[in-house]
Design a protein that fits this description.
This protein has 88 residues and is mainly β. The chain has two domains: 8-50, no CATH class; 53-86. The chain has one helix at 41-50, and strands at 19-24, 27-32, 38-39, 53-57, 64-68, 75-77, 84-86. The strands form three sheets. The chain has a three-stranded antiparallel sheet. Strands 4-5 form a two-stranded antiparallel sheet. Strand 2 and strand 3 (38-39) form a beta hairpin. The longest helix has 10 residues, at 41-50.
């Protein structure tokens, strides 16, 4: 599963880049797309834990969607069936 969009700014106030996940033979490597700094797995895990998220079941297929970056949502597109879902 790919990591969510993470700003390198949260670790280095001098950089405006984002952290990319690059798959290598020995496993994933995390690199800033702006300054090319290598980010530790621990720092990435800490940033991911800080992101607000919510889980919402699709009203069409019933699958639970994890939605990062929001504590609540009023509409979303299901990542399983592709249908639009309005919640209010």
């Amino acid at each position: 599963m790919p990591i969510p969009l993470l700003a390198h700014f949260d670790l280095d106030r001098e950089c405006s880049g984002y952290i990319d996940e690059v798959m290598e033979e020995e496993g994933p490597k995390f690199i800033c797309n702006e300054c090319e700094a290598v980010i530790s797995k621990e720092d990435v895990a800490r940033l991911v834990r800080q992101i607000e998220s919510t889980r919402v079941a699709c009203t069409h297929c019933g699958q639970v969607n994890d939605i990062s970056g929001f504590s609540e949502v009023s509409a979303f597109v299901c990542r399983f069936c592709g249908e639009g879902v309005g919640l209010k």
